[in-house]
Design goal:
The structure is a single chain. With 142 residues, the chain is an alpha/beta fold. It has one domain: 3-Layer(aba) Sandwich (Rossmann fold), CATH 3.40.50.620. It contains five helices and six strands; from the N terminus they run E-H-E-E-H-E-H-E-H-H-E. The radius of gyration is 15 Å and the shape is globular. The two termini are 23 Å apart.
Length: 142
């Protein structure tokens, strides 16, 4: 049923649950998994380097992906690869959706972070944006 699973991870503690659900599905369907971590940039007027501020280093992004890949392999997932991307914070949903299309994902798994108040108003919700435009089924892990 699901041959290609894209799992989007971040560095929050909820990623542990996201990876556990992904491993269970991947093992049940003998699926190939691609782990995606999107390194975000914020635009700040007057910042050095043309106005973009990197929230995390490339090394931190790679560490997030490597850790997730290792966790999935330890859980018995045989076919798993890591992938990183970099984009502006507002474009994270597009990066996830593009990767789902490029990978040919049958299922997209991500955490349902519940930003509230001003954070949600100004930043939006990645999971909401992805669910409404995904090219495949989406599993949101609370």
């Amino acid at each position: 049923m699901y041959a290609r699973i894209l799992v989007a991870v971040d560095t929050t503690p909820e990623t542990t649950d996201v990876l556990a659900r992904t491993a269970a599905l991947a093992n049940a369907f003998d699926a190939t998994v691609r782990v995606l971590h999107v390194q975000t940039l914020d635009v700040v007027a007057g910042a050095a380097g043309g106005g973009a501020v990197v929230e995390e280093s490339a090394e931190e992004a790679t560490k997030a992906v490597t850790g997730a890949v290792d966790t999935l392999r330890a859980a018995g997932v045989e076919s798993v690869e890591g992938w990183t991307d970099e984009t502006l914070r507002a474009d994270v949903p597009n990066a996830v959706l593009d990767q789902a299309k490029d990978f040919g994902a049958d299922l997209l798994v991500l955490g349902a972070r519940r930003d509230t108040g001003l954070a949600r108003l100004f930043l939006g919700s990645v999971s909401d944006a992805v669910v409404h435009r995904a090219p495949c089924p989406v599993l949101l892990v609370p």
